[in-house]
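Aim 2 progress update. The chain analyzed this quarter is reproduced below.
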Amino acid sequence: MRRTEGTRKEGERERKRDEKDEKKEQERKREEKGKRMRRTERMRKEEERERRKDENNRKNEKNERTSAGGARTREREKCDDEQVQGEQGNEKRWRKEKGKGMRRTERMRKDEERERKWDEKKRKEKGRRKRKNKG
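Predicted structure tokens:
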């Protein structure tokens, strides 16, 4: 009687261990599939980004060729890679400066607002003093 009891407990333990192993295996497979999905999703997004970039470059080149600045395009085509990279650097710098300009105008607007409030306050004080001295 006792021996069958022990083997039954061992059987239960083994069954539970097997269930745990099975769950872990399923979880690992699920994670791996998720990683694969994320990887393919990332690659797809990257390809889409590249495609849009190429498309925009083609449009820009076409516009430059058809516009009055077509001569500039031909000059740029003559330039070697270093000069083109330099132009891109300048473009980035210009964007940064533009951003700073935006911040500067915002700062100027705030300063003007502050100054206007201060002037208003002083004018009111002056009016109070006049009335006080008059009375």
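The chain has three helices and no strands. The mean pLDDT is 78. These observations will guide the mutagenesis experiments scheduled for the next reporting period.
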